[in-house]
Amino acid sequence: MQDNGKSASPTSDDAQRTQSRPSPAEADGRDNTATQATPAAAAPAPAATATPLARKARAWARSAWDAVRHHRAATAAVLLAVALCVAAVVAAGLGLLDGPDDARVERDAVAHAPAPDWSAGAFDVAEDLVATGAKVRGRSSVTGKLVVMADVTYQSGRVRATAPASLTYERDADGAWRLDVCRLDGAASFAATRGVSRTRIRAGVGAILAKADASSGSSKKSLATLYQDADVTIKKSTFDRKRQQQDVRIRLVRRRGYQALECDVDAHFSFAAASGSWELRKASASKGARRASLSPVVGTWTGTFQSQDASGARCFGAQGQTLSITIDALSNGSRRVTGTLGCVAHYHAAPQQDADASDGDEAISDVTFEGERLDPADDPTHSTYAFELTTPEDARGTISVVVGFGSADNADRAVARVTCSHTSKESFLLIPYDATATYTDTFTLQCQ
Predict the structure, then answer these.
(1) 78 Cβ neighbours under 8 A, 6+ residues apart
(2) Which of its termini does the chain have fewer beta carbons within 10 Å around, N or C?
(3) Which SS3 state, helix, strand or coil, does residue 156 take?
(4) pLDDT for 5 beyond 60
(5) Residue 249: inside a domain
(6) Has residue 404 got a pLDDT over 90?
């Protein structure tokens, strides 16, 4: 209700309530008659009255702000639509909307993009990279021509590559888009799809051994020299495609006659994405790689009878029979061997004259032996390396064997001398005595 400057008259009830309440002065016992009334402060002047147009503008602004504040998603959609319309107008002005579609551009890229520069390294297989796919990633207009950027994928049997390319199109006389230029715009990135080939591992053994030499810091004769022309066996090859790495273990054996050098070499390769080549990162050889052994003598050897020497008349019971010597183990220093023996034992006295066989000739098998390396002066076979094999004692007689490997004029020669001794009771003029007959059969050996 507006105040028009007129005071409403109090009602009788109001007057009664007013009269019944004491004034503040009366309540605290003070005389208020001398108190002067303080004039009221002047009210500020009212602001100038806004025009109707200004009031409408402010009301419209408040309504618009409330709409934006309460309908943000709709407002964003409207703004996006406006932006797309502007982009479409610009693209139409540049002539991009009616350019070749992505599918055609990708086909053109596969057909015309040049292969990235790549050359095979020492552990790579030289194969051509062939474009197999493409993906458009942008368009632009340059002096009336359309330029499309794409990533082109290449593949060989063991490597995949991706390189950025640009394809420039222009309109021909009929207004159709024609590919003008297709070129690579940057360096390719490579990835291995398969590990180092076994062929390249074998061909790169020299480099692997040189890396192992460098890692060991040894000043002795290089492993590459010691294992030149060695037999190579790839025992393990593990390719980690995710990490682009490969671990390889190779076995090297170089044999010269019955002497051999043997070692295992572990090599670690990693694939370089920038160059597209496998790189040998490290290599190490097993302990004792430079120490020669007689490991080629380990195995089963069969003998062919050649001749016999005897203390008396000879017995050829071993002729036509097979000698079998199995060397199961060789000590680290190649000084001792162990194994089993099978042969014809002459457990009989000397015959009256040479005989093809005698009672007491016995074929024995699986007789265990231990062998010791002989010094050259004690070797009756005149071999490069010789071992004397001893068998357990037997009441019927003793058997000892000398096996020899190699000689001055034949590095591959292998021979064996099997000596059997048998002691029997004899008498002379009714006087008993022990008579010992000894037979030494000579065989040539062949490893099975």
Answers:
(1) none
(2) N
(3) coil
(4) no
(5) yes
(6) yes
Q: What is the CATH number of the domain that holds 232?
A: 3.10.450
Among 302-311, 385-394, 432-441, which stretch is predicted with the lowest mean pLDDT?
A: 432-441
CB-neighbour burial class of residue 297 (10 A; exposed 0-12, middle 13-18, buried 19+) = buried
Of 395, 373, 383, 379, nearest to 327 (Cα)? 373
Determine, yes or no, domain membership for 279: yes
Domain boundary residue, one of 252, 285, 318: 285
Per-residue tokens: 237: 């090859």
The pTM of the full predicted model, rounded to 2 decimals, is 0.64
Instruction: Write out the two tokens for 426.
Output: 């004899």
Split into its structural domains, the chain has a count of: 3
Angle between helices 52-70 and 72-94 (to 10 degrees): 90
Compute CA distances 3 → 8, 337, 404, whole Å.
Answer: 10, 132, 141
Q: What was the pLDDT predicted at 322?
A: 87
Task: State the amino acid at position 91 in one-letter form.
Answer: A
Q: Domain boundary at 171, 192, 213, which?
A: 192
Tell whether 431 is covered by a domain. yes
Answer yes or no: do 394 and 367 share one domain: yes
Nearest to 444 by CA among 338, 364, 325: 325
What distance in Å separates the CA atoms of residue 432 and residue 440, rounded to the nearest whole number? 26
Q: Which range marks the domain in which residue 281 is found?
A: 198-285
Residue-by-residue DSSP string for 352-376 = SS-BS--TTEEEEEEEEEEEEEPPG
- How is residue 271 written in tokens? 């694939």
Q: 67-84: buried (b, 16+ CB within 10 Å) or exposed (e) per residue? A: eeeeeeeeeeeeeeeeee
**Whole-number mean pLDDT of the chain?**
84
Task: Please enumerate, as own/partner, the contacts of 202-207 that have beta carbons within 8 Å and a separation of 24 or more.
Answer: 202/232, 202/234, 203/122, 204/122, 204/123, 204/280, 205/230, 205/232, 205/250, 205/252, 207/122, 207/280
Domain assignment present for 28: no
